[in-house]
UniProtKB/TrEMBL annotation:
InterPro entries: Ferrochelatase, Ferrochelatase_AS, Ferrochelatase_C, Ferrochelatase_N. HAMAP family: Ferrochelatase (MF_00323). This is Ferrochelatase. Transmembrane segments: none annotated. It comes from Falsiroseomonas oleicola. It comes from the Bacteria. Belongs to the ferrochelatase family. It catalyses: Fe-coproporphyrin III + 2 H(+) = coproporphyrin III + Fe(2+); heme b + 2 H(+) = protoporphyrin IX + Fe(2+). Its main location: cytoplasm. Fe(2+) binds at H214, E294. It holds the Pfam family Ferrochelatase.
Length: 379
């Protein structure tokens, strides 16, 4: 894992080992209380998030950010005034880099490019160039593709790479919602959390799994965003591997922050239903791969309190992946597949096509942004 600001020239790589920069894409979070407002301004002025005519966006985005600052500040105060996301992402990068460098054919280095707070794409693209990358792989830490997350980050990276003069061939991975190694690693963590919850809970009380994903405004899904469909796919694959026949489970959506209609059911409504049905819940974050405010505050504090108030007879939470070795091994497998470009990583099926802007990638996620080359489509 390389700091984004190299101060000394890097030594040349041995001739046979290509320099592969793996750029981990994530959303980012404030590093101190004063960063909360500008972080929110960056987020709400992104056209992928605030879909209004361009001339209104700067003003409206700032207004929404201004109104969101107080609740966000209260949330981050619980976490010491900052988001843990960068530290956790750096740790994921270090772990991934160690695994990738056991391969003989590459010299891999992981970088982090956050979308709305530092290090952002411009700094990272400059660092990747300074390191002398011969190949770049953009690896989103979002399992499911959304135009609001991976799509937005990929667009930001493309512009930043141009500004930095980074010309190394670049591959973008759009998603890994159904990637078997990812499903298996996630299922292992969920199963462990299930067994622990079951051991603590009165055997007479049923336990329901709430797979809780970040929500999206309905209009974004209606416009073709595959996120919700991919979340459902992830849940199906994970449940298949849990080996808990007849498991009572549901997919629900958290973190609504705008007044529009968001996709449903909400996690709050599912807590009400659990209270009504007198079942305990195991909440599993299914669209975040690292802990941050929406898991550590929303799930662990707010929803837990709400569940208690509603009389839900038990509240348990499975951890996000963070640097779980199984998850890191799955990321390494994804990187290897992506480099070989010989396997379909996207199971976005049928006539619907993955609307990521790097092409009509039905079944194929990868495209070489700089050269226009396509991944091979398997027969
Ligand atoms: C319209 C607003 C938002 C959409 C759409 C949205 C989509 C989306 N976000 C994530 C993952 C994360 N979101 C995070 C923070 C965050 N997100 C929004 C708004 C939207 N997100 C806000 C306003 C914030 C800031 C925090 C807050 O005010 O509550 C984070 C990082 C948080 C941290 O602690 O670091 C992540 C990660 C996904 C997966 C997603 C859609 C698929
Ligand atoms: Fe978000
Ligand atoms: Fe796709």
């Amino acid at each position: 894992m390389q700091s984004n600001a190299p101060t000394v020239p890097f030594p040349a790589a041995p001739a046979s080992r290509k320099r592969l920069a793996v750029v981990l894409l994530n959303l980012g979070g404030p590093d101190k209380p004063e960063s909360i407002r500008p972080f929110l301004v960056n987020l709400f002025t992104d056209p992928a998030i605030l879909r209004v005519p361009g001339f209104i966006r700067p003003l409206l985005g700032r207004l929404i950010a201004y109104r969101r600052t107080k609740p966000a500040t209260e949330n981050y105060a619980i976490l010491g005034g900052k988001s843990p996301l960068l530290e956790l992402t750096i740790a994921q990068g270090e772990a991934l880099e160690a695994v990738l460098n056991t391969d003989g054919d590459v010299e891999a280095k992981c970088f982090v490019a956050m979308r709305y707070w530092h290090p952002m794409s411009d700094e990272t693209a400059a660092a990747v160039k300074a390191w002398g990358a011969e190949e770049v792989l953009l690896l989103p830490l979002y399992p499911q593709f959304s135009t609001t997350t991976t799509g937005s980050s990929a667009i930001a990276w493309e512009k930043a790479a141009k500004r930095a003069g980074l010309v190394a061939p670049t591959t973008t991975l759009c998603c890994f919602h159904s990637f078997p190694d990812f499903s298996a690693a996630t299922a292992r963590q969920v199963r462990e959390a299930w067994d622990k919850a079951r051991a603590e809970l009165d055997p007479a009380i049923p336990l329901r799994v709430l797979f809780s994903a970040h929500g999206l405004p309905e209009t974004i899904v209606e416009a073709g965003d595959p996120y919700q469909w991919q979340v459902e796919q992830t849940v199906e694959r994970v449940v298949e591997r849990l080996d808990l026949p007849g498991l009572d489970h549901v997919v629900c959506y958290q973190s609504r922050v705008t007044p529009q209609k968001w996709i449903s059911p909400s996690t709050e409504v599912e807590l009400e239903r659990a209270a009504h049905d007198k079942v305990a819940v195991l909440v599993v974050p299914i669209a975040f791969t690292a802990e941050h405010s929406e898991t550590l505050v929303e799930l662990d504090v707010e929803y837990r309190e709400e569940a208690e108030k509603l009389g839900v007879p038990g509240y348990f939470r499975a951890p996000a992946q963070n640097s779980d070795p199984g998850f890191i091994a799955a990321l390494a497998a994804l990187v290897r597949h992506a480099r070989r470009q010989d396997r379909p990583l996207c199971s976005f099926a049928g006539p619907r096509q993955c609307p990521n802007r790097f092409g009509d990638c039905s079944h194929v996620l990868l495209r070489n942004v700089n050269t226009g080359g396509r991944a091979k489509v398997p027969a």
